[in-house]
Amino acid sequence: MPILEIAVKFGTYAVMAGILIFALGVVTLRNLFHCALCLAAALIGTAVIYVVLQAEYLAAIQILLYAGAVVTLIIFAIMLTEHLAETTIRQNNSQSPLAITGLLGLVALLTVLILRTPWPVTQTALKAKVSVMGLGKALMGTYAFPFEVISIILIAALIGTVVIAKKDDPEERL
Amino acid sequence: MIRAIEFYVDMIFVTAKAWILDLLSRFLPDWMVVLASITISGVVILCMGPIIMMYLTLLERKLIGRIQNRYGPNRVGKWGLLQPIADGIKMFTKEDIVPANADKIVHLLAPIVIVVPALMVFLVVPFGERMTAVNLNIGLLYFIAISSVTVLPIFMGSWASRNKYSLLGGMRTAAQMISYEIPMTLAVVPAIMMSQSLSTNTIVLAQAGDYDLHWFIFTPWGIVGFIVFFLCATAECNRPPFDLPEAESELVAGFHTEYSGMKFALFYMAEYMNTFTLCGIAATLFLGGWQGPFFPSWLWFFGKTFVLICVMIWFRGTFPRFRVDHLMGFAWKFLLPLTLVNILLTALWQFTSNLAAWFWSILVLGISLWTLVKLNRTFVPEKRHYPLES
Amino acid sequence: MTVFGWGVFKGMLVTFKNFATSYFRKPDEGGIFTVQYPEEREKTIENFRNFPFLVYDETPGKIRCVACGICERECPTKCIHIEMETDATGKPARRPAVFDIDYGLCMNCGMCEEVCPFDSIFMDHAFEVTAVPMSVNFNEVEIGTALTALDQKKTKVSAERAEGLVRHKEKLLKPNEYFQRIRPTLASAIDQKRKAAEEKKRAAMPLRHNAPDGPVPGRENADGQTQPSATQEPK
Amino acid sequence: MLEINFGPQHPSTHGVFRMTVQLEGEKICGLKPVFGYLHRNHEQIAENLPYAAIMPYTDRLDYVNALANNFGYAITIEKLAGLDVPERAEYIRVIMAELARIVNHITVIGFMLNDLGAFFTPLLYAFRERERILDLFEEVTGSRLMNNYFRFGGVKRDLTDANLAAIRKIVTRFPAFLEEFENLLTKNEILCMRCQNIGILSAETATNAGITGPVLRASGVNYDIRKVDSYSIYNRFDFKVPLGQKGDVYDRYYVRILEIRESLKILDQALVKIPQGEIVNKKALPFLKMPRSFKPPVGEAYGRVESPKGELGFYVVSDGTPQPWRYHVRAPSLINLTVLEEMCLGQKIADAIIILGSIDIVLGETDR
Q1: A and B: number of Cβ contacts within 8 A
Q2: Which of A70, B110, B187, B279 fits a 20 to 30 Å CA distance from D123?
């Protein structure tokens, strides 16, 4: 079924191109709300790529967490601070020389990384088939302790938000 | 003999597809046949979704009519059967008004983006014996991930139409969808724990057993899980009593105030398809998807989903609407703790024997319910005394 | 029972009972009481009052109204317009030449029926009143052709279309039988009253001259022929 | 700070009524009612008409129950002209007024539930009962809503035995409907959550603002004009006046249901004690035929009646001519509306809509 492989390859390249375009959109668009939507599109694009690499679990988590939660959070921020999003803000890139040097450094680092890694790494990674079962056992087994620590941090964060919210209008009976 | 007929009828769709495929494979290259099988199930879903939606609208108007002692639509077609088609034509021909200063692209995109997840969820719903479109081994997680995306298009719709009412509607939807997603996910966890897998097919198989006493609903945690899941499902697809986002009385039509014509029809279609899929998943998880003694499996599945949809319509005919903070309070302060207790119960359920387990779990559930009701003073109606003076 | 969901559950039982019983309960004890309007019609209640109409005895010529103008004065919305008829010698004949009621203004309050001393104006039951002339009758003629008939009318601006809902005397006149049919009790009571008044007058009549039943002055045209009746028999 | 217009064309304002609401998120911090969209110059028209011709216009004031308006206007003119009303006519008036009160209360509860979101079910149950009473009105008065039934010194048409039997049938069947209605609503947790402790009106502010009717009684003030004035023959019937304690939306809802029960009691007693006799005062008979000749003596009169919405008063000044010199209507809906802002401050938008629904205003009466 060679034609199918080619089709899939082309599909992934198209999706990758799409992600790049949307990523550019996030940075350059004037209207803040449009940027948030491009961000969502880019994230869902990465989920599609995970599916192509047969990592469905990761794709589902990606959609659930990023597209479902993070982008909604950002949109909430935009909605609540209306006056910020109402007028399309002008990009004031006065520190452009500084930004360009930083960018060049990053590009250099990436190229070095890409050249040095032995490419067949993807095949080895594929062999270690990560199944949901394995992930669950690892979380409960070897990584049980970090799992607990993370949950404690999350609860602390939750209570923190409640306290901050309560400070704003104390007489609001929760 | 009956078993053979039963098996034949049960597998009628699967055999039909297999027959078409081997017909095609005679004169098509094999990779084309693979493509053909994907397109067949895709086409079936794509045309089944809208048809289900059309006849759900008719069913709803008929049932609510009967609740209110009046006939539902019976002018178009024999018992109003052609009414959905008439609605469809009306939606097509209606003028599509875009508000002046709305931002056009997002206004156009919102209805499209809302229909895509509604259709994608059909992938995972097990319609019959071997009739799940794609047997994903993370079926349920996929379902929860996709249903969490629906918040986005509603935001786009409400923000793009630059209208105060839809803005409020959008804010309310986001708050409601997020706060009801968590109890829904946690309500699903017991079913996953008991069937040891995320794929919907194995969940249904886990509920098989002689004369169907093994459905998850026949266990204490199953009942609580089912009720919580069903309430969250009604909240998830914005149906009364949780229909805050498009509350007619306050917000005119919530986030789709500024939509008309085909775009409004798409919003409408997405809502009804969500209702169907959520009821389908509820039936799969707790009522033993296509398990059933005599009838073919797909008939069982559609029957159960149909019954659950009728209950949702029954809700619509009876209840007034929640207020926003009650809605939030109900999700966070009542459903969430209840599901946590429920997960604890399913864990215990594995170890203790049957009868003692029933007694203990009912006891624990009763205590937790009582404490929750006591804690949420606002939900319990006060007793009122009305003196009659001359 | 203070179980949390009890009130809600009872509410659902009520709607379910209504849903179930709507299939076999009779209309007036809570079953389905919708009447499919154009096909089935509810029997009109006798005392129902809609737009007024004029009553004439046997022929449209023998109209009861004597154009006294009391109803014109008493009508709260001033929707009646009467002009007295003057016969050949210029002496006012006690009959209306023009009697218009503007159905657009009339609020069917029934004051004219109360104040009319000559029992000539009563409230009708016909509520299917349209600005389009009655000649274009929709429920008989299939919708398509009726519209085309309407278009011809529009091309020739007909008198009726221009005035919309104003009804002239010809359209208002309805026979006494029609009045008997729609309001039996009231009509029969009024007929007895008129017959008694007739007998009393006839008993007083021989004192002056005993013409048995000569033309009652002002009732009949001189040559007895009736006015060309332009009224169509209402369906 | 978001400013929203609950404009004249809003699905849940009862008719053309606008509220400009300042919102902070969901909470209301400012509300200004705007009305006058339905002003039809009622009082000016009435000053150019003979007294009898105004009666059909009073139907258009509170178009949900026209009989209470006729009752008020008839009482005022009888006080002005010094006409008294025969026994049978008094009983017929009380029966028709109480039936109109029942129609009004179930319609109000139905529409209030509609604002709450119950998708038309309670409203259509209420309409099923209302249909029977309106058919009776059509049989007796000639029209379902625009009754124009009362005349000075009596009523226009007598109640035949068939009508009395129909009324008895309605009255005997009504408690069963009320039972079903209460089962569906009163203990419904969602309704209690939405209505209890919302839009609280304290007795003291209610009396200062001149609120009357069920809204006042729900705040615990015992003021019912049928008891205070005991006009017509209300002192012959023993009925109670239900009072609420908290004065919130739930009390107003439940006080109306109890008032329906009291009206049913009055109807039972009236149907038993109705005497035979003529239905219009002998002295007023000629005026029926010649309304122009009805010239009340110079002077003024203020008659008031307990309409289901509150104290409906008519103030008429006559200068001896057949037309009133000055004619003014005291509309309870208008006065009950003045306190809307005070009740809605701090509540959510969803509550503002129910509070408006619970005050039960009709725009025909507010704007006149």
Answers
A1: 74
A2: B279
Domains and CATH numbers, chain D: 2-26+41-367 (1.10.645.10)
Residue D203 three-state SS: helix
Sheet of C92-102, strand order? C80-86, C92-102, C166-167
Query: Is the CB of residue B309 less than 8 Å from the CB of residue B279?
Result: yes
Please provide the DSSP assignment of B73-124 as one string.
--SSSTTSTTHHHHHHHHHHHS-----TTS-HHHHHHHHHHHHHHHHHGGGG
| CATH label of the domain that carries residue C192 | 3.30.70
Count of the separate structural domains present in chain C: 1
pLDDT tens per residue across span C128-144: 776 665 555 444 444 44
Residue of C12, C14, C77 for testing the chain D interface, max D β-carbons within 10 Å: C14
Q: Is B317 in CB contact (< 8 Å) with chain C?
A: yes
Provide, as residue numbers in chain D, all residues whose Cβ is less than 8 Å from the Cβ of B383. Answer: none
Q: Does residue B214 sit at the D interface (CB-CB below 8 Å)?
A: no
**How far does the CA of residue A43 sit from the closest CA of chain B (Å)?**
12
Chain C residues within 8 Å of chain D (Cβ atoms): 4-8, 10-11, 13-15, 18, 28-30, 33, 45-49, 73-76, 107-111, 114-115, 117, 123
Q: Are strands C173-175 and C52-56 parallel, antiparallel or unpaired?
A: parallel
> Domain extents for chain B?
85-375
Contact state of C5 with D189 under an 8 Å Cβ cutoff: yes
Please state at what angle helix B164-195 crosses helix B220-236, rounded to 10 degrees.
160
C177 falls within a domain: yes
Contact D194 B320 (CB under 8 A): yes
Beta carbons within 10 angstroms of residue A103's beta carbon:
10
Instruction: Say if residue A123's pLDDT is above 70.
Output: no
Residues D243 and D222 sit within 8 Å (Cβ to Cβ):
yes
Inside any domain, residue C199: yes
Q: CB–CB of C55/C176 below 8 Å?
A: yes
Range of the domain at C84: 52-209
- B-D interface: how many C-beta pairs under 8 angstroms? 124
Interface mutation target, options C8, C9, C22, C40, chain B, most CBs of B under 10 Å: C22
| Nearest residue of chain A to residue B197 (CA atoms) | A133
* Chain segment A68-120, per-residue pLDDT in tens: 889 988 888 887 776 554 555 566 667 778 888 998 999 999 999 888 877 65
How far is residue B148 from each of residues A46, B132, C226, measured CA to CA in Å? 17, 21, 84
Distance separating alpha carbons of residues B274 and D154, to the nearest angstrom: 63
Local structure of D4: helix, strand or coil: strand
Q: What strand order describes the sheet that includes D324-330?
A: D299-307, D310-318, D324-330
CA-based nearest residue to D49, from D236, D325, D347, D247: D325
Cα–Cα distance for residue pair D300/C199, rounded to 1 Å: 48
